[in-house]
Amino acid sequence: MLRALLLLGGLAPALPAGPHWAYKGPHGQQHWPEDHPACGGQAQSPIDIQTQRAQPDPSLPPIRPVGYQHPEAGGFSLANNGHTVVLALPPSLRLQGLPHAFAAAQLHFHWGQPGHTAGAEHLLDGHRAPAEMHVVHYDTEHYSNASEAQHHAGGLAVLGVLLELGSDPHPAYDNILSHLGSISYAGQTTSIPSFSIQDLLPQRLDLYYRYNGSLTTPPCSQSVLWTVFQQPVRISLAQLEQLQGALYATAEAEPEPQHLVDNFRVPQELHQRQVLASFPREPEGYSTGKIVAIAFGAAASCLLLALAVRLAAKRMR
Ligand SMILES: *[C@@H]1O[C@H](CO)[C@@H](O)[C@H](O)[C@H]1NC(C)=O
Ligand SMILES: *[C@@H]1O[C@H](CO)[C@@H](O)[C@H](O)[C@H]1NC(C)=O
Protein backbone atom coordinates (compact mmCIF):
# COMPACT_ATOMS: atom_id res chain seq x y z
CA MET A 1 0.00 0.00 0.00
CA LEU A 2 2.95 2.30 0.49
CA ARG A 3 3.52 2.28 -3.24
CA ALA A 4 -0.13 2.97 -3.70
CA LEU A 5 0.09 5.88 -1.31
CA LEU A 6 3.16 7.26 -3.02
CA LEU A 7 1.29 7.19 -6.30
CA LEU A 8 -1.13 9.67 -4.85
CA GLY A 9 1.45 12.23 -4.12
CA GLY A 10 1.70 12.94 -7.82
CA LEU A 11 4.92 11.00 -8.15
CA ALA A 12 5.51 9.34 -11.48
CA PRO A 13 3.49 6.14 -11.78
CA ALA A 14 6.70 4.16 -12.14
CA LEU A 15 7.36 1.85 -9.24
CA PRO A 16 8.89 3.79 -6.37
CA ALA A 17 12.08 2.58 -4.80
CA GLY A 18 12.00 0.75 -1.48
CA PRO A 19 12.70 -2.75 -0.25
CA HIS A 20 11.12 -5.35 -2.48
CA TRP A 21 8.28 -7.36 -0.94
CA ALA A 22 5.88 -10.04 -2.13
CA TYR A 23 3.18 -12.28 -0.65
CA LYS A 24 5.07 -15.55 -1.15
CA GLY A 25 8.68 -16.64 -1.53
CA PRO A 26 11.94 -15.24 -0.14
CA HIS A 27 10.40 -11.75 0.29
CA GLY A 28 7.02 -13.15 1.36
CA GLN A 29 4.87 -12.03 4.26
CA GLN A 30 6.67 -13.96 6.99
CA HIS A 31 9.80 -11.94 6.06
CA TRP A 32 8.13 -8.49 6.01
CA PRO A 33 9.23 -7.61 9.58
CA GLU A 34 12.90 -7.92 8.55
CA ASP A 35 12.75 -4.77 6.40
CA HIS A 36 9.59 -3.31 7.96
CA PRO A 37 9.60 -3.76 11.76
CA ALA A 38 6.02 -2.53 12.18
CA CYS A 39 4.84 -5.67 10.31
CA GLY A 40 5.80 -7.62 13.44
CA GLY A 41 3.80 -5.32 15.74
CA GLN A 42 0.96 -6.02 18.13
CA ALA A 43 -1.80 -4.16 16.27
CA GLN A 44 -1.60 -5.58 12.76
CA SER A 45 -4.22 -6.10 10.07
CA PRO A 46 -6.09 -7.93 8.72
CA ILE A 47 -7.79 -9.97 11.45
CA ASP A 48 -10.30 -12.78 11.66
CA ILE A 49 -13.33 -11.04 13.19
CA GLN A 50 -15.11 -13.28 15.69
CA THR A 51 -18.55 -11.79 15.26
CA GLN A 52 -20.00 -13.05 18.54
CA ARG A 53 -17.08 -11.56 20.45
CA ALA A 54 -17.35 -8.10 18.88
CA GLN A 55 -18.47 -5.62 21.53
CA PRO A 56 -21.69 -3.83 20.51
CA ASP A 57 -21.24 -0.06 20.78
CA PRO A 58 -24.48 1.83 20.12
CA SER A 59 -22.56 5.12 20.05
CA LEU A 60 -20.92 4.21 16.70
CA PRO A 61 -22.75 6.32 14.09
CA PRO A 62 -23.44 5.35 10.46
CA ILE A 63 -20.60 6.08 8.02
CA ARG A 64 -21.57 9.07 5.89
CA PRO A 65 -19.70 9.55 2.63
CA VAL A 66 -19.89 13.12 1.34
CA GLY A 67 -19.24 13.97 -2.30
CA TYR A 68 -18.88 10.30 -3.26
CA GLN A 69 -21.84 10.28 -5.61
CA HIS A 70 -20.76 13.12 -7.86
CA PRO A 71 -16.98 13.37 -7.82
CA GLU A 72 -15.73 16.55 -9.45
CA ALA A 73 -15.46 16.44 -13.24
CA GLY A 74 -12.44 14.94 -14.93
CA GLY A 75 -11.31 11.38 -14.72
CA PHE A 76 -9.71 9.15 -12.13
CA SER A 77 -6.26 7.68 -12.43
CA LEU A 78 -6.19 3.86 -12.33
CA ALA A 79 -2.84 2.11 -11.87
CA ASN A 80 -1.28 -1.32 -11.55
CA ASN A 81 1.43 -0.86 -8.90
CA GLY A 82 2.59 -4.48 -9.04
CA HIS A 83 0.77 -5.36 -5.80
CA THR A 84 -2.81 -4.34 -6.61
CA VAL A 85 -4.96 -2.10 -8.80
CA VAL A 86 -5.25 1.40 -7.32
CA LEU A 87 -7.82 4.06 -8.11
CA ALA A 88 -6.64 7.50 -6.96
CA LEU A 89 -9.45 9.47 -5.30
CA PRO A 90 -9.71 13.25 -4.93
CA PRO A 91 -9.77 14.68 -1.38
CA SER A 92 -13.13 16.25 -2.20
CA LEU A 93 -14.57 12.85 -1.23
CA ARG A 94 -15.05 13.06 2.52
CA LEU A 95 -16.13 10.75 5.27
CA GLN A 96 -18.27 11.70 8.25
CA GLY A 97 -19.22 9.56 11.21
CA LEU A 98 -15.60 9.08 12.33
CA PRO A 99 -13.76 10.74 15.24
CA HIS A 100 -12.16 13.29 12.86
CA ALA A 101 -12.73 14.66 9.37
CA PHE A 102 -11.25 12.28 6.79
CA ALA A 103 -10.70 12.72 3.06
CA ALA A 104 -10.31 9.95 0.48
CA ALA A 105 -6.92 9.11 -0.99
CA GLN A 106 -7.34 5.93 -3.00
CA LEU A 107 -9.09 2.58 -3.22
CA HIS A 108 -7.62 -0.79 -4.14
CA PHE A 109 -8.40 -4.51 -4.08
CA HIS A 110 -7.21 -7.83 -2.68
CA TRP A 111 -8.14 -11.11 -4.35
CA GLY A 112 -7.22 -14.77 -4.84
CA GLN A 113 -6.42 -16.77 -7.96
CA PRO A 114 -8.55 -18.14 -10.79
CA GLY A 115 -10.62 -21.12 -9.70
CA HIS A 116 -10.54 -20.02 -6.05
CA THR A 117 -13.20 -17.96 -4.33
CA ALA A 118 -11.10 -16.90 -1.35
CA GLY A 119 -9.04 -13.73 -1.58
CA ALA A 120 -10.31 -11.21 0.99
CA GLU A 121 -8.06 -10.08 3.85
CA HIS A 122 -10.54 -9.70 6.72
CA LEU A 123 -12.28 -12.91 7.71
CA LEU A 124 -15.68 -13.12 9.39
CA ASP A 125 -15.73 -16.13 11.73
CA GLY A 126 -13.02 -17.78 9.65
CA HIS A 127 -14.79 -17.24 6.32
CA ARG A 128 -12.67 -15.67 3.59
CA ALA A 129 -14.75 -13.86 0.95
CA PRO A 130 -13.63 -13.98 -2.71
CA ALA A 131 -12.19 -10.44 -2.65
CA GLU A 132 -12.05 -7.21 -0.64
CA MET A 133 -11.97 -3.52 -1.51
CA HIS A 134 -10.23 -0.97 0.71
CA VAL A 135 -11.10 2.72 0.49
CA VAL A 136 -8.26 4.65 2.14
CA HIS A 137 -8.81 8.03 3.82
CA TYR A 138 -6.59 10.33 5.85
CA ASP A 139 -7.26 12.69 8.74
CA THR A 140 -7.42 16.14 7.16
CA GLU A 141 -7.64 17.92 10.51
CA HIS A 142 -4.08 16.98 11.44
CA TYR A 143 -2.24 15.96 8.24
CA SER A 144 -1.75 17.32 4.76
CA ASN A 145 -1.75 14.02 2.85
CA ALA A 146 -2.02 10.26 3.26
CA SER A 147 1.76 9.71 3.11
CA GLU A 148 2.20 11.92 6.14
CA ALA A 149 -0.89 10.59 7.99
CA GLN A 150 0.15 6.96 7.67
CA HIS A 151 2.95 7.50 10.19
CA HIS A 152 0.56 8.55 12.98
CA ALA A 153 -1.88 6.46 15.03
CA GLY A 154 -5.39 7.12 13.77
CA GLY A 155 -4.02 9.06 10.80
CA LEU A 156 -5.79 6.79 8.30
CA ALA A 157 -9.33 5.46 8.14
CA VAL A 158 -9.95 2.55 5.79
CA LEU A 159 -13.34 1.17 4.75
CA GLY A 160 -13.21 -2.59 4.12
CA VAL A 161 -15.84 -3.96 1.75
CA LEU A 162 -16.07 -7.72 1.36
CA LEU A 163 -16.93 -8.89 -2.16
CA GLU A 164 -19.05 -12.02 -2.41
CA LEU A 165 -20.41 -13.73 -5.51
CA GLY A 166 -23.91 -13.04 -6.81
CA SER A 167 -25.78 -14.01 -9.93
CA ASP A 168 -25.62 -10.56 -11.56
CA PRO A 169 -22.69 -8.35 -12.47
CA HIS A 170 -22.43 -5.24 -10.30
CA PRO A 171 -22.53 -2.29 -12.74
CA ALA A 172 -20.51 0.10 -10.53
CA TYR A 173 -17.56 -2.33 -10.43
CA ASP A 174 -17.49 -2.43 -14.24
CA ASN A 175 -16.37 1.21 -14.12
CA ILE A 176 -13.05 -0.16 -12.83
CA LEU A 177 -12.88 -3.75 -14.07
CA SER A 178 -13.51 -2.91 -17.73
CA HIS A 179 -10.24 -0.91 -17.77
CA LEU A 180 -7.89 -3.51 -16.33
CA GLY A 181 -6.80 -4.51 -19.84
CA SER A 182 -5.10 -1.10 -20.19
CA ILE A 183 -2.94 -1.62 -17.08
CA SER A 184 -1.94 -5.27 -17.44
CA TYR A 185 1.64 -4.65 -16.35
CA ALA A 186 3.10 -3.22 -13.18
CA GLY A 187 3.78 0.49 -13.47
CA GLN A 188 1.05 1.14 -16.03
CA THR A 189 -1.56 3.85 -15.47
CA THR A 190 -4.71 4.85 -17.31
CA SER A 191 -7.33 7.54 -16.95
CA ILE A 192 -10.96 6.44 -16.52
CA PRO A 193 -14.20 8.45 -16.48
CA SER A 194 -15.35 9.43 -13.00
CA PHE A 195 -18.35 7.66 -11.51
CA SER A 196 -20.20 7.40 -8.20
CA ILE A 197 -17.81 5.83 -5.70
CA GLN A 198 -20.75 5.50 -3.32
CA ASP A 199 -22.22 2.83 -5.62
CA LEU A 200 -19.25 0.56 -4.79
CA LEU A 201 -20.25 0.51 -1.10
CA PRO A 202 -22.82 -1.76 0.56
CA GLN A 203 -26.36 -0.47 1.17
CA ARG A 204 -26.12 -0.47 4.96
CA LEU A 205 -23.38 1.91 6.01
CA ASP A 206 -24.60 1.75 9.60
CA LEU A 207 -23.60 -1.91 10.10
CA TYR A 208 -19.88 -2.39 10.61
CA TYR A 209 -17.01 -3.70 12.74
CA ARG A 210 -14.48 -1.21 14.08
CA TYR A 211 -10.95 -1.79 15.36
CA ASN A 212 -7.50 -0.19 15.44
CA GLY A 213 -5.03 -1.82 13.07
CA SER A 214 -2.49 -1.30 10.33
CA LEU A 215 -1.80 -1.13 6.64
CA THR A 216 -1.99 -4.73 5.37
CA THR A 217 1.14 -4.26 3.23
CA PRO A 218 4.63 -3.03 4.13
CA PRO A 219 5.43 -0.80 5.92
CA CYS A 220 2.39 -2.11 7.92
CA SER A 221 2.10 1.21 9.79
CA GLN A 222 -0.22 0.86 12.80
CA SER A 223 -2.15 3.97 11.91
CA VAL A 224 -5.47 2.68 10.61
CA LEU A 225 -8.91 3.06 12.13
CA TRP A 226 -10.64 0.14 10.41
CA THR A 227 -14.31 -0.04 9.43
CA VAL A 228 -15.24 -3.42 7.99
CA PHE A 229 -18.82 -3.46 6.75
CA GLN A 230 -20.98 -6.34 7.89
CA GLN A 231 -22.79 -6.50 4.54
CA PRO A 232 -20.85 -7.73 1.53
CA VAL A 233 -21.26 -6.35 -1.98
CA ARG A 234 -22.04 -8.95 -4.65
CA ILE A 235 -20.21 -9.13 -7.97
CA SER A 236 -20.54 -11.83 -10.62
CA LEU A 237 -18.12 -14.71 -11.15
CA ALA A 238 -17.12 -13.15 -14.49
CA GLN A 239 -16.22 -9.93 -12.68
CA LEU A 240 -14.21 -11.79 -10.06
CA GLU A 241 -12.38 -13.62 -12.86
CA GLN A 242 -11.51 -10.27 -14.47
CA LEU A 243 -9.89 -9.17 -11.23
CA GLN A 244 -8.08 -12.50 -10.83
CA GLY A 245 -6.90 -12.82 -14.42
CA ALA A 246 -6.19 -9.41 -15.93
CA LEU A 247 -3.03 -8.23 -14.23
CA TYR A 248 0.66 -9.01 -13.94
CA ALA A 249 2.82 -8.24 -10.91
CA THR A 250 5.74 -7.68 -13.26
CA ALA A 251 6.62 -4.84 -15.63
CA GLU A 252 6.08 -5.30 -19.34
CA ALA A 253 9.82 -5.57 -20.03
CA GLU A 254 10.41 -8.37 -17.54
CA PRO A 255 11.20 -11.67 -19.25
CA GLU A 256 9.20 -13.85 -16.83
CA PRO A 257 5.71 -12.42 -16.35
CA GLN A 258 4.10 -13.20 -12.96
CA HIS A 259 0.34 -13.09 -12.55
CA LEU A 260 -0.89 -10.65 -9.91
CA VAL A 261 -2.88 -13.10 -7.77
CA ASP A 262 -3.31 -14.04 -4.10
CA ASN A 263 -2.46 -10.53 -2.90
CA PHE A 264 -3.89 -10.99 0.57
CA ARG A 265 -2.16 -11.12 3.94
CA VAL A 266 -2.89 -13.88 6.46
CA PRO A 267 -4.92 -12.88 9.55
CA GLN A 268 -2.92 -11.32 12.37
CA GLU A 269 -3.21 -11.86 16.12
CA LEU A 270 -5.71 -9.60 17.88
CA HIS A 271 -3.50 -9.37 21.02
CA GLN A 272 -5.00 -6.83 23.47
CA ARG A 273 -7.30 -5.17 20.95
CA GLN A 274 -11.04 -5.04 21.02
CA VAL A 275 -13.34 -5.22 18.02
CA LEU A 276 -16.47 -3.10 18.28
CA ALA A 277 -19.73 -3.61 16.39
CA SER A 278 -22.03 -0.73 15.47
CA PHE A 279 -25.07 -2.97 15.97
CA PRO A 280 -26.49 -5.21 18.73
CA ARG A 281 -25.27 -8.78 19.02
CA GLU A 282 -27.47 -11.22 17.17
CA PRO A 283 -29.08 -13.75 19.49
CA GLU A 284 -26.96 -16.88 19.37
CA GLY A 285 -28.90 -19.76 17.89
CA TYR A 286 -29.01 -22.96 19.89
CA SER A 287 -26.97 -25.13 17.56
CA THR A 288 -26.63 -28.86 18.10
CA GLY A 289 -23.12 -28.29 19.39
CA LYS A 290 -24.37 -25.91 22.02
CA ILE A 291 -27.21 -28.16 23.11
CA VAL A 292 -24.73 -31.00 23.57
CA ALA A 293 -22.45 -28.66 25.55
CA ILE A 294 -25.33 -27.53 27.74
CA ALA A 295 -26.44 -31.14 28.36
CA PHE A 296 -22.88 -32.10 29.30
CA GLY A 297 -22.64 -29.09 31.57
CA ALA A 298 -25.89 -30.01 33.31
CA ALA A 299 -24.81 -33.64 33.74
CA ALA A 300 -21.45 -32.56 35.15
CA SER A 301 -23.13 -30.21 37.64
CA CYS A 302 -25.44 -33.01 38.83
CA LEU A 303 -22.47 -35.30 39.32
CA LEU A 304 -20.57 -32.66 41.32
CA LEU A 305 -23.64 -31.98 43.44
CA ALA A 306 -24.08 -35.69 44.15
CA LEU A 307 -20.41 -35.98 45.16
CA ALA A 308 -20.69 -32.95 47.42
CA VAL A 309 -23.79 -34.36 49.09
CA ARG A 310 -22.05 -37.70 49.67
CA LEU A 311 -18.99 -35.98 51.08
CA ALA A 312 -21.14 -33.88 53.41
CA ALA A 313 -23.07 -36.98 54.49
CA LYS A 314 -19.77 -38.83 55.25
CA ARG A 315 -18.52 -35.90 57.34
CA MET A 316 -21.73 -35.86 59.35
CA ARG A 317 -21.42 -39.50 60.21
C1 LIG B 1 2.83 15.29 2.33
O1 LIG B 1 2.89 16.32 3.28
C2 LIG B 1 4.18 16.50 3.85
C3 LIG B 1 4.06 17.50 4.98
O2 LIG B 1 3.37 18.65 4.59
C4 LIG B 1 5.15 16.95 2.76
O3 LIG B 1 6.44 17.13 3.29
C5 LIG B 1 5.19 15.87 1.68
O4 LIG B 1 5.98 16.28 0.61
C6 LIG B 1 3.79 15.55 1.18
N1 LIG B 1 3.89 14.35 0.37
C7 LIG B 1 3.30 14.23 -0.77
C8 LIG B 1 3.50 12.93 -1.46
O5 LIG B 1 2.62 15.12 -1.27
C1 LIG C 1 -8.42 3.10 18.87
O1 LIG C 1 -7.38 3.85 19.45
C2 LIG C 1 -7.78 5.10 19.96
C3 LIG C 1 -6.56 5.86 20.41
O2 LIG C 1 -5.73 5.07 21.20
C4 LIG C 1 -8.79 4.88 21.08
O3 LIG C 1 -9.24 6.11 21.59
C5 LIG C 1 -9.99 4.12 20.52
O4 LIG C 1 -10.89 3.81 21.56
C6 LIG C 1 -9.53 2.83 19.86
N1 LIG C 1 -10.67 2.25 19.16
C7 LIG C 1 -10.98 0.95 19.26
C8 LIG C 1 -12.12 0.50 18.46
O5 LIG C 1 -10.35 0.17 19.95
Question: Keywords for this structure?
Answer:
317 residues; alpha+beta; 2 domains; 23% strand; globular; binds 2-acetamido-2-deoxy-beta-D-glucopyranose
SSE inventory with pairings:
Elements: H1 2-8, H2 32-35, E1 48-49, E2 55-56, E3 64-66, E4 76-80, E5 85-88, E6 94-96, E7 102-111, E8 123-124, E9 127-128, E10 131-139, H3 146-149, E11 156-165, H4 171-177, E12 189-192, E13 208-213, E14 224-229, E15 233-235, H5 237-245, E16 276-277, H6 288-316
Parallel strand pairs: 1-8, 2-16, 11-14, 11-15
Antiparallel strand pairs: 3-6, 4-5, 4-12, 5-7, 6-7, 7-10, 8-9, 10-11, 13-14, 13-16
The structure holds 2-acetamido-2-deoxy-beta-D-glucopyranose (2 copies).
One 2-acetamido-2-deoxy-beta-D-glucopyranose (NAG) is lined by residues 9, 144-145, 147-148.
Explain what you see.
The protein contains six helices and 16 strands. The protein has two domains: 3-282, Alpha carbonic anhydrase (Carbonic Anhydrase II, Roll), CATH 3.10.200; 286-317. The chain is globular, with a radius of gyration of 23 Å. The strands form two sheets. Strands 2, 3, 4, 5, 6, 7, 10, 11, 12, 13, 14, 15 and 16 form a 13-stranded mixed beta sheet that branches. It has a three-stranded mixed beta sheet with strand order 1-8-9, with no helix packed on it. The protein has helices spanning 2-8, 32-35, 146-149, 171-177, 237-245, 288-316, and strands at 48-49, 55-56, 64-66, 76-80, 85-88, 94-96, 102-111, 123-124, 127-128, 131-139, 156-165, 189-192, 208-213, 224-229, 233-235, 276-277. By secondary structure, it is of the alpha+beta class. A hairpin with a 4-residue loop joins strand 4 (76-80) and strand 5. One 2-acetamido-2-deoxy-beta-D-glucopyranose (NAG) is lined by residues 154, 210-212, 274, 276. The site of one 2-acetamido-2-deoxy-beta-D-glucopyranose (NAG) has 5 residues, from helix 3.
